[in-house]
Amino acid sequence: MPGTSSGGNLRVSVEIPKKIRLTRDSLSQVQKRLECQRRVERLRRNHTCCVPGCDSVGVEFEKVHAMTRHVPTVFDGRLADPSDTVQGMRVRALLQVATWLLGRPGTLHDLLDLVNAQHFLESRETTHPRSSSWPTLEGFCRYLREPVPAEFTLAPVNSVAGLLHWRVLYLLAALLQPRDRLYWMEQFAYPPTVVESLPEAVDSHFHPDRLRRAANIHGTKEDVLALEVEQQVVRLKLKHVVASFCDPETYPSSRDVDTFPPEVIVAVGIHPKHAANPKRFLTDALERLSSLLTNPRVVAIGDVGLDHSVDPADWWYQMKLLQKLLPIIRENKVLVLHCRGITGDNGMEAHLLLLHLVKPLSRQQRIQLHAFNGNQLVVGWWLEVFPNTHFSFNRSVENFTPEQVAAVVSMPEDLLLIETDAPYFTRPHMRFSAPAEVVDVAAMLAGLRGVTTQHILEVTTRNAVNLFGEIPTGQVAL
Residue 72's domain spans which residues? Predict the structure, then answer.
């Protein structure tokens, strides 16, 4: 069986005393750093890297940090349906770690015993791998001819396939000596062309704070950004995601914004449904919003606008809130507009009213009409007044009327955007959506416009970069 040669229980008493002593020293250091990390995490959301000697302080995106700084790329989750070549390379990488840590040649089961003996993962909030990762784990089991458990667990790790989980790999990396870790990273780097061949996309609108609540995620922000629903999603690279924070209660701090990965484009606004809140709430929200807009990482203001799906008694408050927002809207920020008509309507009256309210803005104002569901007349009205308007579509296009479909078909290609509006607009029988599902929207638009999904992805990625601006990116892999 590949990589699982015979061997007894874990024995650390032995052949290379110096290596064993180094492993024990590493275990002690990692345990101390983990205890420090737990104390810090109780006070703030940032993490302390558990790898001794790592110079990163206040690690906010723990998974991204681990997989880019300390773990070989052969374990990259973007390698969908890995070949036997990749699987074999993963086995050799793990066996190399076993040899280093045990001070003798070991098996994958020996390495598994070592991981479980330290009880490293029992204090983590996540004790089960996400079910979206199970196909990868099951595939590794099949390659090794190992039994597939009814469910995979991390505390304890109940299968050698669990050694592929990023938290396990992170801890193994932390146990290695610096020279060994560097060799491990270099020796087991997989050719980047495999990753680079994945299609790129931009989810031009989603709500990370709302998605966190909907998915009941208590982990780090990268768990939200890299979230996959239970069904497998077509593998792609999210070149950017536009994260919209429109609930003042969950605004990020300016410091939080500075720690977001570069692929995250930040928009901050006040959703029109907050307009009927007490005056004190809105005054405080406007002050905080104005402050956040001074951060150069905040490149857009939104969601703001009108939502007539609520009690008509609130509509007046929405107009007043929008009028208070107009003075802080700057031409160098993208304006992300939320416009929703009466339930069951395509929003023509709401779009006309919203257009009238924002007319005082510069004609050159860059605008994203998100979750757009208007007809060709609405498109024409907006472009006549604001020629830099882009129209963003989500999964709701599958329920469009013939008039709305006509607007999609006739839309100038360079004005198209795609979005998930996650956690909303879900797949059938799902509780929430996620940014990776933007490929579904691309496929729907492609079907309506008679082009390929790849073409829609390329066009909308280019349009989003043109609208929001290019930011150096490492890509979110999903």
Answer: 17-191
Angle (CA) 437-440-446 rounded to 5° is: 150
Checking if the pLDDT of 315 tops 70, the result is yes
Would you say 3 and 107 are in contact if contact means Cβ atoms under 8 Å apart? yes
Q: Tell me the whole-structure pTM to 2 decimals.
A: 0.66
Q: Do 114 and 40 sit in the same domain of this protein?
A: yes
How far does CA 114 lie from the centroid of its chain?
Answer: 32
The closest of 154, 160, 116, 168 to 138, measured between CA atoms, is 160
**Contact by Cβ (8 Å): 300, 336:** yes
Nearest to 330 by CA among 293, 304, 357: 293
- Which residue pairs, CB below 8 angstroms and at least 24 apart, start in 356-365? 357/306, 357/319, 357/322, 357/323, 357/326, 358/322, 358/326, 358/386, 359/385, 360/326, 361/326, 361/329, 361/331, 361/335, 361/386, 362/331, 363/387, 364/331, 364/388, 365/329, 365/331, 365/335
Given this model, what pLDDT does residue 174 score? 92
Q: How many domains does the chain have?
A: 2
C-alpha to C-alpha distance for 314 and 84, rounded to whole angstroms: 60
Would you say residue 166 has pLDDT above 50?
yes
More confident residue, 262 or 8: 262
